[in-house]
Amino acid sequence: MPPTGSDPARMNRKKGDKGFESPRPYKLTHQVVCINNINFQRKSVVGFVELTIFPTVANLNRIKLNSKQCRIYRVRINDLEAAFIYNDPTLEVCHSESKQRNLNYFSNAYAAAVSAVDPDAGNGELCIKVPSELWKHVDELKVLKIHINFSLDQPKGGLHFVVPSVEGSMAERGAHVFSCGYQNSTRFWFPCVDSYSELCTWKLEFTVDAAMVAVSNGDLVETVYTHDMRKKTFHYMLTIPTSASNISLAIGPFEILVDPYMHEVTHFCLPQLLPLLKHTTSYLHEVFEFYEEILTCRYPYSCFKTVFIDEAYVEVAAYASMSIFSTNLLHSAMIIDETPLTRRCLAQSLAQQFFGCFISRMSWSDEWVLKGISGYIYGLWMKKTFGVNEYRHWIKEELDKIVAYELKTGGVLLHPIFGGGKEKDNPAPHPHFSIKHPHTLSWEYYTMFQCKAHLVMRLIENRISMEFMLQVFNKLLSLASTASSQKFQSHMWSQMLVSTSGFLKSISNVSGKDIQPLIKQWVDQSGVVKFYGSFAFNRKRNVLELEIKQDYTSPGTQKYVGPLKVTVQELDGSFNHTLQIEENSLKHDIPCHSKSRRNKKKKIPLMNGEEVDMDLSAMDADSPLLWIRIDPDMAVLRKVDSEQADFMWQYQLRYERDVVAQQEAISALERFPTPASRLALTDVLEQEQCFYRVRMAACFCLAKIANSMVSTWTGPPAMKSLFTRMFCCKTCPNIVKTNNFMSFQSYFLQKTMPVAMALLRDVHNLCPKEVLTFILDLIKYNDNRKNKFSDNYYRAEMIDALANSVTPAVSVNNEVRTLDNLNPDVRLILEEITRFLNMEKLLPSYRHTITVSCLRAIRVLQKNGHVPSDPSLFKSYAEYGHFVDIRIAALEAVVDYTKVDRSYEELQWLLTMVQNDPVPYVRHKILNMLTKNPPFTKSMESPLCNEALVDQLWKLMNSGTSHDWRLRCGAVDLYFTLFGLSRPSCLPLPELGLVLNLKEKKAVLNPTIIPEAIAGNQEAAVNPSSHTQLVGFQNPFSSSQDEEEIDMDTVHDSQAFISHHLNMLERPSTPGLSKYRPANSRSALIPQHSAGCDGTPTTKPQWNMELPRKGTGIHVSVSHLEGKEQPPLEMSVHAAAAAPLSVFGKEPASSKHSEHHHHHHHEHKKKKKKHKHKHKHKHRRDGRERGRGPLAFPSPAGGRSARSPSLSD
């Protein structure tokens, strides 16, 4: 069953090519994963995999696979032993000897390391040599079966073991393990082709203790007990072609629940949580029904499994036919706040089953289509479930997030194209990480990327209509399901991969509309639009003169040209106008319909057809305008600042029926603290029909206005009388009624109002006494006995209210704060907090919300100088073993303390935790919080900024986080926040190195000490269009020509391995081990494999560079080469300028792979041209002597010390 008609795979995938051309010289059709031993004590896994592949090129002699941190024992191909090399350049991105510390250098080296093992470029960490006995077999393109035995010991990523340290057997302790990771991370737990574009069918077998359950993808075919009944093996079959990246596993003593509404759906949770599981998942079948209905397509897999586990990597992770959730999403029927959040998680994971798991992507640049579609249909589900208001509020929230992020950081690019010359038009917006690969992205960038993707899908829907949009999705799904059922036609499977061009073609076929301009604007370039709107009413002409300006020069912005909708509410009704925004037109005249009329009392028609009476006394007598809205449907990714009079905002808040408009009005009214604004806000608070989120926002706005009007404010504090009227006893207004949260709208208002009231301040900038008493009374009289819902969130918000009421302490002649001289009000607050904390120890609340609020409140008291600032309480709450929310809240306080008190000790404590904490999510969060609230930044002097810290963070990001992409990118973000792109300012300058330039006979200062110099010529660094010239990571295998001629394609795409000679494959991969056992992946061998690791992903030799970098300089400064190397092709630089390209391809590896200088400079000067082919064999003989020879200069190409062992030894 060889794939028919499949073209020999080539590297060059042209844009717009039909179909999918694999970057790999083979097609994977089936993979077996068998894990036959899992040890929870040792946290180890032993197993094997078997891959069935069909070569697609005749002379396939080596096969590259992905595998990280697995120890590989032996590899057999069709039962013949095969030699292999294992090399992972991402373990240590820059070699430890390198004194380089600038981030530009690191980012380029990291991007190169990642692409050197990227399966989408035909690379991998594991290179297997096809035994020569099989060459004839391969030339006939016959099937190969690759059998790999491997083990994993205490994995640091990919598989996460949770082993509680309590009494009992593993099952009784609730020990479990699950796969996790960011993007394609399956290579962390078994060897595979870890690419979303390589689909195959799967057979998965897991042998576990009899008390455990193994959950994996596909159908459970059978469960077989061993003879002694101690263990059982779960056999899963996944017949739908799936990529390795979508394979997952969860093993634990799970309780099992078959969904009562849909028997093909099964839910799993940890022991004793079954009641919560029942309630939480009872809703899932409705989500299924919704998606199947709008997509007019059945759920693609034969079953679906949800597994709820502890210490989750992310809250929701979707894999083929199963999703892994955090156990913290489970809740009972008494919980209000968590319910919508958990349902949203379930819906999100199901949307990704269709687009993301079933339909995969061709390459990373097509990721936006999958994230966009799954996010878009999730939005439709939200609209149906929670209503249009919630949906529009969500869209506005997401839009505000992406706009703020792009303006702050310079843009998110949805469709990065890595062709020749494309980067010129679209300079990469992100200086400190590469966006060409998912594993180099900052986590925050990736979340914003997903957010932008679904917003852009919504823009496409606006353009072509929802009906066509759903037809396009249906078409993609039906093509994919047809393809997935072709068992033996694996070349058909590429129909299950989506690409940007295929998606766009599908849109134009279905809708007949050209959406190219829209794609060009939002997908092919980054940036958002910034509008400034202002207007004047021309009474004579009865027109509205609207001026719309754009700012397209700030970072993260772009120029918008195209239609823009403006809605004008006049006395006669609401009118929509579409303006054409052009290059330079700013002013737009919009004719008005109604003459201003004061006298005739008529109802005013609104947008939704409602007619209302308005009090028009506030408005301008001459103009019929009530309010104006620019781009009301959010049909552009934009930020709008529009100016209108305060009365217009007030009308808009009261009478506009769109929640987004009301929220805009509320934020605008903060600038107009007048009695009229106060009245408008109070009216909204009292309106039952008004959307609850708008009313919540109005509370905070009212508090701000009251503070601005503090001298003229009359009556009781803002919102107090309102709250009393709504929630307190009629007879005794300071006692709150017993809780009844049946009406969720009033519940949300009831818990928000006191939090906003606590922000009120009197003339002395203190919280009014009566407000504090009022909040303390709410806590005192809180009675939840008759309520069917839990009040834990409500009580937590009351503590937040107490914290909001705290104002800075007034210290009298620097007396030391003790509990005796506490301000009496603060004392009351502290007593409440302490009481709550003690109560929590006895009766913990759901998700410990109250502890979390108490910890935050204590930090507020510390910051305001009421209690001594001390991190020890928070450090004890941050220890492993507490609930994750508590830990995060405590860590946040420690991060803040580190910043305020500039404490080096706490910063060290945090960084130690980043390295050693058992929970990946917590490690990630600490880095994230330090980045958001940094102890210092690159622009300020700080006692914390010292060389040791730089080295520590460098080490963390260089080698300490190689097991978790997300963590490494977090460390890079932090490094960038603290030190910026160039060499950190606190480092001493490197010693001045001299460079002797023999050609010019003069000595020049080592260019290393110009920290910025490197930044300029980095972009040329990795240019895939010329593999052959590239060095460093892009090393072609160099074969010794006399042995065998490798076809050029293999040379091109085998950049990753830096073996200077194919014979290497014949020898044992580690001196002491047999040739089939590579050293442990951590072994010291690895860094030496990769001579290129240390060099920058070197620029193509720049012949016109300034002299000190020209080929023949001899560096005298040893330790500070700092990676500003000369182009490692230096030996044949001059010859090469004229030589045709092919010379490079066949050029032996001497100059590239050397860690020592392979030939003496002087000799080289005389016989420059003659030498070119001679040193081919020479370096094999004398590599060793050379290393100890008199002229042992460290090679600029290797950038390491002369004595480091090299492979040629």
From TrEMBL:
Compositional bias of kind Basic residues: 1154-1181
* One Pfam family this sequence matches: TAF2_3rd
Q: Highest taxon of the source?
A: Eukaryota
Q: Name one GO biological process term.
A: RNA polymerase II preinitiation complex assembly
Q: Where is this region: Disordered?
A: 1-23, 1146-1209
Which keywords does this Swiss-Prot/TrEMBL entry list?
Nucleus, Transcription, Transcription regulation
Using the record's annotation, list all stretches that form the Transcription initiation factor TFIID subunit 2 TPR repeats domain. Answer: 646-1004
Lyase listed as a keyword: no
Q: Which GO terms describe its molecular function?
A: chromatin binding; RNA polymerase II general transcription initiation factor activity; transcription cis-regulatory region binding
Cellular component (GO) terms are:
transcription factor TFIID complex
Q: Does the keyword Nucleus apply?
A: yes
The entry assigns this protein to a family as follows:
Belongs to the TAF2 family.
Q: What does this protein do?
A: The TFIID basal transcription factor complex plays a major role in the initiation of RNA polymerase II (Pol II)-dependent transcription. TFIID recognizes and binds promoters with or without a TATA box via its subunit TBP, a TATA-box-binding protein, and promotes assembly of the pre-initiation complex (PIC). The TFIID complex consists of TBP and TBP-associated factors (TAFs), including TAF1, TAF2, TAF3, TAF4, TAF5, TAF6, TAF7, TAF8, TAF9, TAF10, TAF11, TAF12 and TAF13. TAF2 forms a promoter DNA binding subcomplex of TFIID, together with TAF7 and TAF1.
What name goes with this protein?
Transcription initiation factor TFIID subunit 2
What organism, scientifically named, is this protein from?
Bos indicus x Bos taurus (Hybrid cattle)
Tell me the organism's taxonomic lineage.
Answer: Eukaryota, Metazoa, Chordata, Craniata, Vertebrata
